[in-house]
Design brief:
Distance between the termini: 101 Å
InterPro entries: TPR-like_helical_dom_sf (IPR011990), TPR_rpt (IPR019734), Ycf3 (IPR050498)
Keywords: Repeat, TPR repeat
TPR repeats: 84-117, 118-151, 152-185
Largest sheet: none
CATH topology of the largest domain: Serine Threonine Protein Phosphatase 5, Tetratricopeptide repeat
Number of domains: 3
CATH class of the largest domain: Mainly Alpha
Helix content: over 70%
Number of helices: 18
Protein name: Tetratricopeptide repeat protein
Number of strands: 0
CATH superfamily of the largest domain: Tetratricopeptide repeat domain
């Protein structure tokens, strides 16, 4: 009898292992995330140390939007058997809940454990950019670009970091390289906006026009090209672009302000007033605007303050 009991005790873990693996295989075929998680939980109950079940359950929780639950499962694995993939995936879940510092630690650890893990390096650069650690972000993007020199997005993001560091020549080079690799609507748009910020309105207009030829559904491109037209004195073209922008977004107060200024430039006081009133109603719906400071969140105040200031008095007089 003792021998039979001993055999049963010995076989019990083996049976559980086999049942757990069977359930895990079933879970991998399941498409419903809630059912998938339930199956992995069942497998873990049978075999509490099955780290694969924890990993797959974490992936499913992440896909379901339960990022905190995913982090708990990934952390269980990291305590037992830390590896690059688990650190990377926990970093993704942390990023999703805007724990950028935690994500940075995980991406760094993943890349430390596997220096060929380029997704971890790229994600590390991105999260450093989000944390406004621009110099370190540039270093990581540069490391990534050395290994993957044909990725246009990496050049665009490094350009944005250079721009934040006010290294405009290097930023321009990267925006241009992205276009050479992939002359897409987005890449022309990105360089166009960058040029607008530097007040290269004519050059920006060229890029924004190329972007719109490739994608006519980018409302922001219409706005920025409208701004370039207005600043270049092409007032009728500005009116066309701003009008298209508000067709896409009926609460685009920047476009309405642009329309008000453009109509005023062509001496159409009626339409200037209509659009100025629309902009003001969106910017300050509860009280009258009495100071230019109330436009602080607008594109015009933040990037074209003197132009706005020189035009706003004329618009106020329309009332």
């Amino acid at each position: 009898m003792k021998k039979i009991i001993l055999i049963l005790i010995t076989l019990y873990p083996i049976v559980n292992f086999g049942q757990a693996n069977k359930i895990i295989r079933q879970a991998t075929r399941e498409t419903d995330l809630d059912k998938k998680i339930a199956l992995y939980t069942e497998a873990i109950a049978l075999e509490p140390n099955n780290l694969d079940a924890y990993f797959y359950r974490a992936l499913a929780k992440n896909d379901l939007g339960d990022f905190s639950g995913a982090i708990v499962d990934y952390s269980k694995i990291i305590v037992e058997e830390p590896d690059a993939d688990t650190y990377y995936n926990r970093g993704n879940s942390r990023y999703s809940i805007k724990d950028f510092s935690g994500a940075k630690e995980d991406y760094a650890k993943a890349f430390l454990l596997d220096d060929n893990f380029l997704d971890a390096l790229y994600s590390l650069a991105c999260v450093k950019f989000d944390l406004e650690e621009f110099e370190d972000a540039v270093k990581d993007f540069s490391n990534f670009i050395k290994r993957v020199p044909t990725n246009p997005t990496a050049y665009t993001l490094r350009a944005s970091a250079y721009k934040a560091l006010e290294q405009y020549t290097k930023a321009a080079e990267d925006y241009s390289t992205a276009i050479l690799i992939e002359p897409s609507a987005d890449n022309y748009y990105n360089r166009g906006v960058f040029l607008m910020d530097l007040n290269y309105h004519k050059e920006a207009h060229v890029d924004l026009t190329k972007s719109l030829k490739l994608n006519k559904n980018n409302s922001y491109a219409y706005f920025y090209r409208g701004a370039s037209n207005l600043l270049l004195g092409q007032h009728l073209d500005a009116i066309k672009d701003f009008s298209t922008a508000v067709e896409f977004d009926s609460v685009d107060f920047d476009a309405y302000l642009g329309l008000a200024m453009a109509y005023n430039k062509v001496n159409d006081a009626a339409n200037a007033k209509i659009n100025f009133d629309r902009a003001n109603a969106i910017i300050s719906p509860d009280k009258a605007i009495t100071s230019i400071q109330q436009y602080a969140n607008t594109y015009w105040f933040q990037t074209q303050y003197y132009f706005l200031n020189s035009n706003i008095n004329d618009l106020v007089k329309l009332n």
